[in-house]
Specification:
This protein is of the alpha/beta class. It is built from eleven helices and 13 strands. The strands form three sheets. It has a seven-stranded parallel beta sheet, sandwiched between helices. Helix 4 crosses helix 11 and helix 8 packs parallel to helix 9. It is globular. It binds ligand FHN. Ligand FHN binds next to loops. Belongs to the glycosyl hydrolase 29 family. Its EC number is 3.2.1.51. Alpha-L-fucosidase is responsible for hydrolyzing the alpha-1,6-linked fucose joined to the reducing-end N-acetylglucosamine of the carbohydrate moieties of glycoproteins. Pfam families: Alpha_L_fucos (PF01120).
Length: 427
């Protein structure tokens, strides 16, 4: 088999990923039957519910206040440029009208194809759309047990001896991915989740699956959770287009074996739960989200922030207000985020982070500084400096620092320096 040259694969990925780099900030949406128990999306497994106990939620699921256009408008207000919705999570419940199962939203009192309404509404608001699809499936009879936490049904006395045909499940999974990518218009991201020992790579027939995905939607971006290693010099076909750290930010820019920068996206929750959780303690602040976004972009990464709609189809108010506050910051400072990436040859300053786009360097002052902000590392490289939010001049002293009392305080100070044109990383 012809092994595509490493450079070709890398260059093709760069071409596919351009909008993703410009976007930098997206909305993750975990929604499904688990919103009714309101104890997170793993509730069926963690509480070892039988299929009958969980059926209660199926029989009553009717999100009367589901208005995806409202969700899309919130995402826009937040400065988000794309969104990824769970089309099927581990519980196997399909938010779309799949012809391969009865376990779907159109068979609940909702009687709606929730995925179709999502993609149409978000596209109408100008956002790119992605679909999350769980490789695990606790409802499908041919999905095997893997430890008691992965498949509560297998632990139930009534099911322990049930025979299953895993290849039949893989056929089902492939067929559903094909219907999502052929029946819902242009999909921009396919977000698979997740592989683990024994259930990874060709166990999913991943090369065949990715070939089908790319044939149906040649422009699409695929995440890296099918089990391939995108850091390899010659990554396998299913290695993915972007790496996907979760609930955190890599310490350094992500690179492959040849030290070439790789695209990546960190996904985070707002309150430590992906699925709706009635206890709304431990929410992050808007400043936490902004700083995480700056941190990601300073290392060529994207940030996907999760919301957990309720059983009625509404995004929790607390999440809405946090995202609106982030959006206000991005209105003033988005130029230092969208389409930006790692600063070339500029180590992280002690007072914050740099992001760069073309010849402009953005200095994100994030620490409380007394006296002066040192620009030592930029000596002789700056033509002029302005506060990004209001365009006011930043006076740089002959000692290459800036008097900090010319600013209101950290987080509101994002200076853009006229950085001499240099090559920038292509991500
Ligand atoms: O088990 C899932 C979890 O429920 C959630 O969907 C996250 C989101 O990245 N992915 C898996 C845990 O890594």
């Amino acid at each position: 088999m012809h092994k595509q040259r490493s450079d070709d694969v890398y260059e093709q990925r760069l071409e596919r990923i351009k909008w993703f780099r410009d976007a930098r900030f997206g909305m993750f949406i975990h929604w499904g039957l688990y919103a009714i128990p309101a104890r997170g999306e793993w509730v069926r497994s963690m509480e070892r519910m039988s299929i009958e106990d969980y059926q209660t939620y199926f029989d009553e699921f009717d999100p009367l206040r589901y208005q995806p256009r409202v969700w899309a408008q919130l995402a826009k207000e937040a400065g988000m440029k794309y969104a990824v919705l769970t089309a099927k999570h581990h519980d196997g419940f399909c938010l779309f009208d799949s012809q391969y199962t009865e376990y779907k939203a159109t068979n609940t009192p909702a009687k709606r194809d929730l995925v179709r309404e999502f993609v149409e509404a978000f596209r109408e608001e100008g956002l790119k759309v992605g679909l999350y699809y769980s490789l695990l499936d606790w409802h499908h009879p041919d999905y095997p047990a893997y430890g008691d936490r992965q498949h509560p049904m297998r632990d139930h006395p009534d099911y322990r001896e049930v025979q299953h045909e895993f290849p039949r499940y893989v056929d089902y999974m492939h067929a559903q991915v094909e219907e999502l990518l052929s029946g819902y218009g242009r999909i921009d991201i396919m977000w698979f989740d997740f592989s683990y020992p024994g259930f990874s790579g060709e166990a999913w027939r991943a090369t065949e699956l990715v070939n089908k995905v790319r044939a149906l939607q040649p422009h699409i971006l695929i995440d890296n959770r099918l089990g391939g290693d995108m850091h390899a010099e010659h990554p396998v076909a299913y290695a993915g287009d972007f790496a996907g750290p979760e609930q955190g930010v890599p310490r350094h820019p992500v690179t492959d074996e040849l030290a070439r920068r790789l695209p990546w996206e960190s996904c985070i929750t707002l309150n430590n739960s992906w699925g709706y959780h009635a206890q709304d303690w431990r929410y992050k602040t808007a400043q936490d989200v902004i700083r995480t976004l700056v941190n990601c972009v300073s290392k060529n990464g994207n940030l996907l922030v999760n919301v957990s709609p309720t059983a009625k189809g509404e995004i929790p108010q607390k999440a809405q207000s946090i995202l609106r506050e982030v959006g206000e910051w991005l209105l003033r400072n988005g130029e230092s985020i969208y389409g930006c990436g790692e600063a070339v040859d500029q180590p992280k300053p002690e007072w914050g982070r740099y992001t760069q786009r073309e010849h402009i360097l953005y200095a994100h002052l994030m620490e409380q500084v007394i006296g002066h902000v040192s620009l030592e590392g930029l000596r002789g490289k700056i033509k002029k400096a302005r506060v990004l939010a209001d365009g006011s001049e930043v006076v740089i002293t002959p000692f290459w620092n800036v008097a900090v009392d010319s600013f209101d305080g950290p987080d509101d100070i994002f200076m853009n320096f006229g950085y001499p044109a240099q090559e920038t990383y292509p991500l």
